[in-house]
Amino acid sequence: MRGNVALTLALMAGAVSAARNATDTCAEGLYLIVARGTSELKGPGITGPLADRVAEQIKGSTVVPLDYPATLTDPDYDESVGDGVEALQQAVQNYTQSCPDSKVAIMGYSQGAQLTTDALCGGTGAGFESHEPLSADLIKKNIVAIVLFGDPTHVIDTSYDRGTSVKNGVLKRDNATVRVCETYSDRLVSYCDAGDVFCDAGGDRKVHGSYIGRYGDDALKFIADRYGKAAKSSDGSGDRRNRTSTSTVSGSTSTAAPTASSTDSPAASGGSSAAPSAGRGTVSAASGQVSGSIYLALSLVFAAALQAL
């Protein structure tokens, strides 16, 4: 009898330990979540090389592609964005609950940039489903840097606006959520250049895929500086529950993966002018709804960009 009890307790302890290891592995450096753009293959997408550079500079960092559809159709763009919002919020909440003293950064490209701002600042407006943003306390405590490229919801002349853009994006973000984003301008930058088909409502299809080459060094410095300031302010009292089970993502060593649900929707590789995005990436979903006229306009813009290839 005593032996059976001991065996049962041992099995229970093993189950608890396994559950903790699955969700409680804390990066020694930065936990970097990367949201790819539309039609990019699962993985970090076009921002992958930059994410690898961040991981090389900030030792002990983890690079984690967000698992969401990243599609224009099947599911439709608005639903894909909604799924991505839910996946990102869940990934951040799960990780910071397990690793409360952790430091998180987020990079988003194209559709990945839109879902990131939706997740942090609230729904886009423009006919998309409204989403409640992540807690401001959580963002200010744990998220040290947010870097966006080619966001279709871009708004010019904000405190976090970077690049040469002179026009708003094709899905301009509403003023209420812009004001929320403004409160994070110390840790948020959004790159958009003039002529970009999506974030600047322009006509130059090449611009949308040029950000990493043009602004990669600036973005790397921004993330590293933000991480350094956060690490200094915490006086080295970071989370000490770090584990070392490693996996390789796009050539970088990572120590954990977020518990964001993945969908098996097909992703097609696209050029730099494909619907908000181009590259290799992953994502996760929540439903959102776009009015028929807005969705039609968005589809026409994307189709025109693809036909120009």
UniProtKB/TrEMBL annotation:
**Keyword Transit peptide, does the record have it?**
no
Q: Where is the composition biased (Low complexity)?
A: 244-282
What Gene Ontology molecular function terms does this protein carry? carboxylic ester hydrolase activity
Top-level taxon of origin: Eukaryota
Note down the stretches annotated as region Disordered: 230-282
Arranged from A to Z, the UniProt key words for this protein are: Disulfide bond, Hydrolase, Signal
Q: Which residues form the signal peptide?
A: 1-18
InterPro entries from the xrefs?
AB_hydrolase_fold, Cutinase/axe
This chain belongs to the protein called Cutinase
Q: What is the lineage of its organism?
A: Eukaryota, Fungi, Dikarya, Ascomycota, Pezizomycotina
